[in-house]
Design brief:
CATH architecture of the largest domain: Orthogonal Bundle
Strand content: under 5%
Number of helices: 11
CATH superfamily of the largest domain: MetI-like
Radius of gyration: 24 Å
CATH class of the largest domain: Mainly Alpha
Helix content: over 70%
CATH topology of the largest domain: MetI-like fold
Number of strands: 0
Distance between the termini: 51 Å
Oligomer: single chain
Shape: globular
Length: about 300
């Protein structure tokens, strides 16, 4: 009996040692990756620091590196992300809710689930070809902001669906059973209990998808994004009734990654500095989006606790 207890204690000690080694290995890998990312960002910031200024954000692209700005590029990125979010988030969340809460468990549902999961790993250039054939030529949208936003929405839609399903699946079944026990309908349970508890995970999936979309270049080049543009799209807000203008959806566009690619491909070393400054801005926009997601997740969790 004593020998058996000693063997059990030895087995527990070995498992604890393995867990500790795994924790240390994971921490080391994370620190190494953070160091590499920080070094790259610091190098980017050092190279482009002299170009970061008011004129850089308010200027238009130019053949002279000292006068080149990113105004059309960052406004184009924001408008494209607006269309992407408005198209992908409602559809993706609704699809995830339907698959997890309403869809019958049969062969058709399994086929849909497998295809959604596989679509999350499809290369972005394939979505660019799909957008070119379906949106640009098929629906006649042309190389516009609407076509770009819908193409990126198709690309991140599987990510939003999968994240929504996983977040809903993590909600304890006892919460649903308690609500059903009080006479709530399926929609009331989903709306008042399942979605609020899963909101943090859903926001995480949405922000991961949008962070991927804001840095994409291949699908936008495929559908015909402009590499050099010296004008802004019309403003979405109008001074007269109904105070909304939708002409910007059909205008040509450029985005930050394409503008950076245009500058990097030029032989003048001064454009490399300008591209580095644009890279700092793009990383800053991504961090701002992630910060907003963290804040919204914190608010959602705090609301659930109360």
């Amino acid at each position: 009996m004593a020998l058996q207890s000693e063997q059990i204690r030895g087995l527990i000690a070995r498992h604890r040692l393995r867990d500790m080694l795994f924790d240390v290995l994971g921490l080391v890998i994370m620190l190494v990756l953070l160091f590499i990312l920080s070094a790259l960002f610091i190098k980017l910031a050092i190279d482009g620091w002299d170009r970061l200024g008011t004129d850089f954000f308010q200027g238009y692209p130019s053949r002279r590196a000292a006068q080149a700005g990113i105004l059309p590029a960052w406004i184009g990125s924001m408008l494209v992300m607006l269309v992407t979010a408005l198209a992908a988030v409602p559809v993706g969340v609704a699809a995830g809710v339907w698959l997890e809460e309403y869809a019958p468990r049969n062969v058709l549902t399994e086929i849909v689930e497998i295809n959604v999961t596989n679509l999350a790993g499809v290369p972005s250039i394939i979505y660019g070809l799909l957008g070119l054939g379906l949106l640009v030529h098929g629906l006649g949208l042309g190389p516009s902001v609407a076509a770009a936003g819908l193409t990126l929405a198709m690309m991140i839609l599987p990510v939003v669906v999968v994240a929504t399903r996983e977040s809903i699946r993590a909600v304890p079944q006892t919460i649903r059973e308690a609500a059903y026990g009080l006479g709530a309908t399926r929609w009331q349970v989903t709306r008042d209990h399942v979605l609020p508890y899963s909101l943090a995970g859903v926001l995480t999936g949405v922000i991961i998808g949008l962070s991927r979309a804001i840095g994409e270049t291949a699908p936008l080049i495929t559908i015909g994004a402009v590499a050099f543009i010296a004008f802004l799209p019309p403003s979405p807000v109008d001074a007269s009734f109904p105070f909304l203008n939708f002409e910007w959806l059909s205008t040509p566009f450029t985005v930050m990654p394409i503008q950076m690619f245009n500058w990097v491909s030029r032989p003048d070393p001064a454009f490399q500095q300008t591209a580095a400054a644009a890279g700092v801005v793009l990383v800053g926009l991504t961090l701002l989006m992630n910060g907003a997601a963290i804040f919204l997740r914190y608010r959602a969790r705090k609301r659930i606790k109360w």
